[in-house]
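Write out the 3D structure for:
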Amino acid sequence: MPNVIIDALCTKIMSISSVTDADYIEIVSTFMVATNHNFNCSMCKAKYPRQPEKREAMFEQKSCKKLAPKTRFSYKPKHSMAGNLTVGYSTCPANLFNSGTLSLINMVNDYDKGVLPYSGGVFEQPAKFVEVMELVHNLKEEYNQEQEKKLSKYGKRSKH
């Protein structure tokens, strides 16, 4: 299928999607925090336990406590088609972390195995839940591909 048709289909799907841009950003941010130790607040705080000036400088650099005047971090989807937002952060993504969203993210393995939260099949699940599961599935797939690339770069084999 030509890319023009795929982009048109994606645009149509996103126009009827129940996942808002704010939902998307919260899901991506929570996933980033859960999978990247650079966005773990306790690890950052532990990095300079006896050097508060260095810790504050690091907090400033990462924009932990306030918004930066420019983008500090960004997430760009690997499969960038219409509807997949590039998220630019002017603060640490950990500030957008949501434990409820993390619970949803953790449900994706059960979802992939067919264990569903509501009775009935996939077509009887809330549309937003199915969309979130597909988004998380894509995020996990991208993450796994990045990990494979890192392992192959350093000559290590994956455990698959």
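DSSP finds seven helices and two strands in the chain.
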